[in-house]
Amino acid sequence: MAAILDTIISVWTTHQITLRTIQHLQMFSIALAISIIIGVALAILVYSNPRLANVWFNVLNIIETIPELALFIFLLPILGLGEKPTIVACILYSILPIMRNAYTGLAHVSNEYIEIAKAIGLTKNEILLKIRLPMALPLISSGIRVAVVYIMGIVTLGGLIAAGGLGVPLQAGIYRYDIPAIIIAALWVGTLGVIFDFIAWVIESRLARRFNPW
Amino acid sequence: MVALLPLLDAILQHLTLVFTSLAIGISLATPLAILSVFYKRVSYVVLTIINMAQSIPSFALVAIIVPLVGIGFVPGIVAIVLGSIVPIVKNMYVGLAKTDIALIDTGKGMGLTDLQIVRYVRLPLAYPAIFAGLKFSAVIANGIAVLTAIIGSGGLGRVIFEGLASFNINKTLSGAIPAILIALSLDMIFSIAEKKLKSKSVY
User: Fold this and answer.
1) Contact B121, B112 (CB under 8 A)
2) What is the tens place of the pLDDT at every residue in B44-82?
3) Could you tell me if B54 lies within 8 Å of chain A, comparing CB atoms?
4) Best interface-test mutation with A: which of B11, B15, B56, B169 has the largest number of A CBs within 10 A?
């Protein structure tokens, strides 16, 4: 038991896992914040125009199918190595789930609510802010939950293109065949992924209970 | 320039990785999904594990395979199967479980056994959902197949990693572009299959 603890501590310090975790979460939160802003903003721009929305979704769908590493390769000549291409790749992948859910939520508010809002004299913008957006929140948050999982995965891959984060100890472990490092880093990354997904799920179900009219 | 023959070799190896994993994934997912339809407890366990597995980063999955299975082609397949089986099981279970009760009762009334109902009623009606899952799974499998080159599975990922290590942009692109084309064609093929099956189904 003590031996296991010793191994964990030595791996943790030699691979600077605390520092890597901080880098990891930094990239994670920047990427998540930007993709939420872009995703929701795009949805607001297109929610009244299904045809335009479809064009966007088709383009984003194509990006979605590209393997993450191949996307990195295309971003490298433009953005160089490191954090920038990693964050941009995260954003490119997670706009789609957020935007699609936000679009569905904004566009499919039941007509009764819109009619009532119009009847009491709200303008289009007021309807958007006070009716559509709050009612779309549960759907938007479930889109964000998908994005959380995507971003966790891609930030980890960022270790391969010198972005830092928890991909670095994984890569080092594989290259040096350092089994304890692989096991500890992989379990830690996996746990972080599950925890963040769980947090997103809690937020999603809270919002669903608060704002779901059905 | 990039030598053409080794590249074709890598593409072939890549496709072998993807399709072998898909085949194994389907053959593992089918009994799991069918059992989940009949036994509530199995479905609870399967869905819980699957939902958790989905949130584990694919790189962590690939890495943990090394101490468990080793390095090379077979460990690569194991990693791809683990990473891409989730959407197959999930969609198959949802497709099989959400069949209209009236249709199942009709089947029972005609004297079909439970397994015959799965084969002749539930399964055909679930095809669109199953193919949607397969499409998603194929795209994920393609992505992880690029990544598993790091544990020695070969394929297009190896070309990419070799190019990255030697700062050879042409070489990385010669690995990345075929990988993207494979992803797009997998997506297209399964979308067409899904659409055809949808137009055939009752709904």
Assistant:
1) yes
2) 999 888 888 889 999 999 999 999 999 999 999 999 999
3) yes
4) B56
Q: To the nearest whole percent, how much of chain A has pLDDT over 90?
A: 66
Residue B162 contacts A, CB cutoff 8 Å: no
Q: Is A83 on the interface with B (CB under 8 A)?
A: no
> CA B139, CA B146: separation in Å to the nearest integer?
11
Confidence of residue B203 (pLDDT cuts 50, 70, 90): very low
Interface check A160 vs B, CB under 8 A: yes
**Closest B-chain CA to A183:** B64
Cβ-based neighbour number of residue B198 at 10 Å: 14
Instruction: Give A186's contacts in chain B (Cβ within 8 Å).
Output: 60-61, 63-64
DSSP A55-108: HHHHHHHHHHHS-HHHHHHHHHHHH-SSHHHHHHHHHHHHHHHHHHHHHHHHHT
Query: Within an 8 Å CB–CB cutoff, is residue A177 touching chain B?
Result: yes
CA distance B135 to chain A (A): 10
Nearest CA in chain A to B69: A179
Mind telling me how many Å the CA of A5 is from chain B's nearest CA?
19
Q: Are A172 and B59 in contact (CB under 8 A)?
A: no
Q: Do A174 and B180 touch (CB under 8 A)?
A: no
Fold of A26-211: MetI-like fold (1.10.3720)
Query: What is the C-alpha separation between B192 and B189, in angstroms, rounded?
Result: 5
The domain tally of chain B equals 1
Which tokens in the block code for residue A19?
Answer: 């520092």
Q: Cα separation of B32 and B26, whole Å? A: 10
Note whether B58 contacts A173, CB cutoff 8 Å: no
Q: What is the CATH number of the domain that holds B154?
A: 1.10.3720.10
Structural domain range at position B59: 4-200
> What is the enclosing helix (H) or strand (E) of A14?
helix A2-14
Q: How many CB atoms lie within 10 A of CB A119?
A: 8
Mean pLDDT confidence for A46-57: 92
| For range B92-104, the mean pLDDT | 89
- Mean pLDDT over B14-43 rounds to 93
pLDDT for A211 beyond 70 = yes
